[in-house]
Design goal:
- The chain is of the alpha+beta class.
- The protein folds into two domains: 3-75, Winged helix-like DNA-binding domain superfamily/Winged helix DNA-binding domain (Arc Repressor Mutant, subunit A), CATH 1.10.10; 79-126, Dna Ligase, domain 1.
- The chain has helices at residues 3-9, 16-25, 33-39, 45-57, 100-112, and strands at 31-32, 61-64, 72-75, 83-88, 94-98, 123-126.
- The strands form two sheets. A three-stranded antiparallel sheet has the order 1-3-2.
- β4 (83-88) and β5 (94-98) form a beta hairpin.
- The radius of gyration is 17 Å and the shape is flat.
């Protein structure tokens, strides 16, 4: 994924901040706004949140929610790498799992009722084997 090409496609400014933030998040599986604030301590918080909102708007990242105050994000991949997440309620460990069968069922059900799915996310709260 080339951030400069994507920003050009959407007529958005190509800035060093946006390129640096994208470079950082592209090396992560999941990240939070706080991760960006800690990494880019020299940037205004408002700039970081504007960049997150821009990346959400132009579909570079998507929000992953575990029903908490803080939100996690991940880079949007091709559908061939789509997966879902499970988070341990005790230690907060997050794992992902392949969801091909679930995705097929969701798309089939949506098609049956004349809906087109843009995106979906399934987040499961669990207790991992180490915390049992």
């Amino acid at each position: 994924m080339n951030i400069e090409n994507i920003l050009k496609e959407y007529n958005k400014s190509i800035t060093k901040e946006r390129i640096d933030i994208f470079s950082f998040i592209s090396e992560k599986h999941l990240f939070s706004a706080n991760d960006l604030i800690l990494k880019f301590w020299n940037l205004w918080r408002a700039s970081i949140f504007r960049t997150i909102n821009l990346f959400l708007e132009i579909w570079i990242i998507r929000k992953i929610s575990f029903w908490e105050r803080s939100e996690n994000y991940e880079i949007v991949n091709d559908d061939e790498n789509h997966h879902e997440h499970m988070k341990c309620e005790k230690c907060s460990k997050i794992i992902n799992f392949n969801s091909d069968n679930i995705c097929k069922k969701i798309l089939s059900e949506a098609s049956n009722i004349w809906f087109k799915v843009k995106d979906h996310s399934i987040s499961i709260i669990w207790t991992c084997k180490n915390c049992l």
